[in-house]
């Protein structure tokens, strides 16, 4: 039953959750846990799940200032991740109606690439796995940097 809210907006019970959820996947155990959490969230909310893998820019391309990447190991990783996602989702009967997409993008900075994808897809929420690498101590973890962007709710899955 729709009820008018202040400002003329209409609130409908059961339809007020996220419509697009972006989850970062990089083949780490933490990212697979984030995917599992995001799958459940998207299924319960009836949201589109956009799984985003950020492929690294090759060192040669970065030095040359070229953003074109051809036949890099990142492509094979993306294909392996997508195959694992397809197999995992196909085996789960409760997610057969799940709407999902896999995006493999090239980016030097994971946070910038995830942010760009979330903006382009008009994401309502972003889910990432907790960082366990040493690099985040110097640069800051992807999760913290996404939270600081203050554009979407960010869920960090340990």
TrEMBL record:
<feature type="domain" description="UspA">
    <location>
        <begin position="19"/>
        <end position="158"/>
    </location>
</feature>
<comment type="similarity">
    <text>Belongs to the universal stress protein A family.</text>
</comment>
<protein>
    <submittedName>
        <fullName>Universal stress protein</fullName>
    </submittedName>
</protein>
<dbReference type="InterPro" id="IPR014729">
    <property type="entry name" value="Rossmann-like_a/b/a_fold"/>
</dbReference>
<dbReference type="InterPro" id="IPR006016">
    <property type="entry name" value="UspA"/>
</dbReference>
<dbReference type="Pfam" id="PF00582">
    <property type="entry name" value="Usp"/>
</dbReference>
